[in-house]
Amino acid sequence: MGQNKSRLSxxxxxxxxxxxxxxxxxxxxxxxxxxxxxxxxxxxTYNHELEGGAxxxxxxxxxxxxKFNSEPKNRxxxxxxxxxxxxxxxxxxxxxxxxxHVFSEKIQLEGKATNQKSSGRCWLFAATNVLRLPVMKxxxxxxxxxxxxxxxxxxxxxxxxxxxxxxxxESRLIQFLFGAPVSDGGQWDMVINLLExxxxxxxxxxxxxxxxxxxxxxxxxxxxxxxEFAYQLREMHASEKSIEVLRHAKAQMMEEIxxxxxxxxxxxPKVFDWTFRDKDGKYYEFFGxxxxxFYGEIVNYKATETFSLVNDPRHPYFNLYTVEYLGNIxxxxxxxxxxxxxxxxKQLTIQALRSGKPVWFGADVGKASDSxxxxxxxxxxxxxxxxxxxxxxxxxQRLEYAQSLMxxxxxxTGVHLxxxxxxxxxxxxxxxxxxxxxxxxVMADGWFDDWVYQIVxxxxxxxxxxxxxxxxxxxxxxxxxxxxxxxx
Length: 488
Prior knowledge:
Blueprint: H1 28-51, H2 58-69, H3 72-81, H4 86-89, H5 93-98, E1 105-106, H6 122-139, H7 148-157, H8 172-179, H9 188-198, H10 210-213, H11 216-238, H12 243-265, E2 272-277, E3 283-289, H13 291-299, E4 306-310, E5 320-323, E6 337-339, H14 342-354, E7 359-363, E8 369-370, E9 375-376, H15 383-387, H16 395-400, E10 408-418, E11 421-428, E12 440-444, H17 445-451, E13 452-458, H18 464-468, E14 475-477
């Protein structure tokens, strides 16, 4: 979803006292005791999970401690990692040096890096980074496309509280949906729905607001009201109010939601004028454009002729999947994924790049990466060296045990091949131009295998047998499935 939004939870970080100055030196003994207490707490919790509540005894802890201290490497690692960010300490210099921004295949036209800032709009930024390329090519202008318009309409349309009023409020489904009744995350098929229903506009006629770039507080307000409204509707249903009464109440509730969003983002234009000079100095002017006209006539990108392919090794390949209750527009196309092997996904991506087309994709961006360096590489952080451990789960197992899921959307714009095999990939991110190479990242091919889950292709660029899978009746994954996480 974005640079500031994590979708997996872990142990909360504990901020401990430090020896930053002489005044605090006498607290060092307390610090050691605190750390020892935390260590025992972690181990005891872990043992409780594995052994059904049996606590570790002092003899076992002493045995672990003796073995730990008998290895000089452990003491060296402790001294280094305790005092700095472990990812900095364990950074694999050789891997970082080899992850260079040189690619044998690269699309001819690239835009400047965009910045989603403190929001979860990566899916929209990645989409408009794809959409702007036809505008740059055909009109010789680097005008950005507005995301706030799509952001507002996405927030408005991902709300339906009446359909599930009879579901038990404590059911897993309701608790999951109440966990994030609305957000600024999304999926590619949601992009198609927004473009087809509302169109898109140049950024100059509908610029960013503070709240589109910093969406946390707006999301909180809307989420709070939606939970409140859900409660009210369920109470009305329990008191046997008619469906007409519920719908009338919902219409009034949605007016309130619209007001909150309009105040925070501004209303998107219904009609606008667009004037600019191209790179050759030629002047253009367009008057009375609607967002849908701009999308159809100026952008001229056929989003409806694209589709999503995923690599989900938990399920059989060459089948169609969807996620229950995942969508944004009533009557729009549902979320659909064609499941394919990872090697097929890579070959299709290479073919698209060779034909000069960027490729929108979804991945688990927080794994084995350094955002300041702009590197995505399984070898980059050497946890094995620092902790003498190995991570042994397969991609399917990580999905099954909540260790991985799609968290971010970006765009492939290049690949480096050796003997026709991919070595590294060029990635257009939306975290500003100060990371990586002016906002572009490099991805090692092994990282693609483990952490890339989805790509989007034009149907004409995919084998017909994959396009034909879209005619299948989709198998429905539950609402909380990790294949829907990018929209949460």
